């Protein structure tokens, strides 16, 4: 077991270890962006613009060029016959291992490449981990293993005549080439490889930037997106007890449906239920469990675990009740208490009803409310639980979306409680509604809206 991800302690009633996971899947990883495009399309220029706009973030730029194989003496003699635009010209295994090391938050040594000598330079560059890693190069979207590491894939799409004229200019001035060689290389290798490998990789891009660095609007949008993503990462960094479930396209698709104002009540309930189930399952993964060995029907020993038994759910009426079925489906016979908080004015909250299990103080509590907005109701509900003797670190607050304001309000007051959510939204508006949000959850789920 990795000691960073799991802590173990002896339980009081027996000789087993109980193991508390801190949610290994949420280990904070850097945001990795791939930027591909034809030669001289403006990849490096676009990357530098993104980096300068992300001024208060730690960003590093890695060039695929650094991973060119050095030419042997034999290859150097026939350099005019060498295709630098073919995927085999790169040491992709080394690139993958360097990117994986950086993604895991460790420093790595990246080779330096000399375009004049077609060789790696003796001294390499030590690169420290960062919040954002940008990997730039003609073929960074070609290999699926490299693509799979990326959180965002960009393709810079610039007219080929513009690219050729820039390439002539750059290679003659900066790379010590003569114009005949540049044109010959372009016709023989650069253009055919662009058509065979680079251009087809465009279909993997999330964002295509026409006109490269001239496209300020696209670059602004990309920077905004990265900032939003980093905002979420940062909240998880500030509060280690905030866990956002691992996002997949399935989850994104469900969010798209439940957030869409046009979605019917039937579909809203269906997809909200699916998301709730995922959040509940994820939340249960944060409960302590006890190791247990059993004998299978084949007579073999299986080392497993036993679920935590002293558990209960508490739903915040009325929206939280939508999460009860998922909890019951996962935890047979679970006790579920209720809390009703009345909203007075903009931020006033008042407890008007609670019905909780008598022995709640000795239980782990899963607090259910699908939307964490300002955090006022949540703070009130958690205060009720604490007043009943529930241990703060035994509370897991489960919701579908959280506003940063609500996370700050809850985590500052209750730093030992855990929040498990499926997405962190951008902000609250002046009416304390989550933006982009999903509207009045209770009305949409129970069909009481207009
Ligand atoms: N929008 C632009 N307008 C004018 N020149 C540009 C523009 N974008 C890039 N360049 C120039 O074109 C050349 C190639 O750009 P670069 O960003 O290095 O491309 P790449 O990394 O895709 O090969 C550089 O000399 C750069 O200064
Ligand atoms: N020794 C080398 C290595 C590469 N090239 C060319 O560089 C191009 C990639 O760099 P960009 O900044 O233009 O993306 C690629 O098209 C290779 O042809 C080279 O000429 N010599
Ligand atoms: Mg470049």
UniProtKB/TrEMBL annotation:
Residues 247-448 form the Phosphoribosyltransferase domain. Gene3D superfamilies: 3.40.50.2020, P-loop containing nucleotide triphosphate hydrolases. It catalyses: uridine + ATP = UMP + ADP + H(+); cytidine + ATP = CMP + ADP + H(+). Its EC number is 2.7.1.48. Residues 1-23 are annotated as: Disordered. This is Uridine kinase. Pathway: Pyrimidine metabolism; UMP biosynthesis via salvage pathway; UMP from uridine: step 1/1; Pyrimidine metabolism; CTP biosynthesis via salvage pathway; CTP from cytidine: step 1/3. In the C-terminal section; belongs to the UPRTase family. In the N-terminal section; belongs to the uridine kinase family. It is an enzyme of class 2 (transferase). Pfam families: PRK, UPRTase. Residues 32-218 form the Phosphoribulokinase/uridine kinase domain. The keyword Nucleotide-binding applies. It comes from the Eukaryota. The keyword Transferase applies. SUPFAM superfamilies: P-loop containing nucleoside triphosphate hydrolases, PRTase-like. InterPro entries: P-loop_NTPase, PRK/URK, PRTase-like, PRTase_dom, Uridine_kinase-like. Keywords: Allosteric enzyme, ATP-binding, GTP-binding, Kinase, Multifunctional enzyme, Nucleotide-binding, Transferase. One of its GO terms (molecular function) is GTP binding.
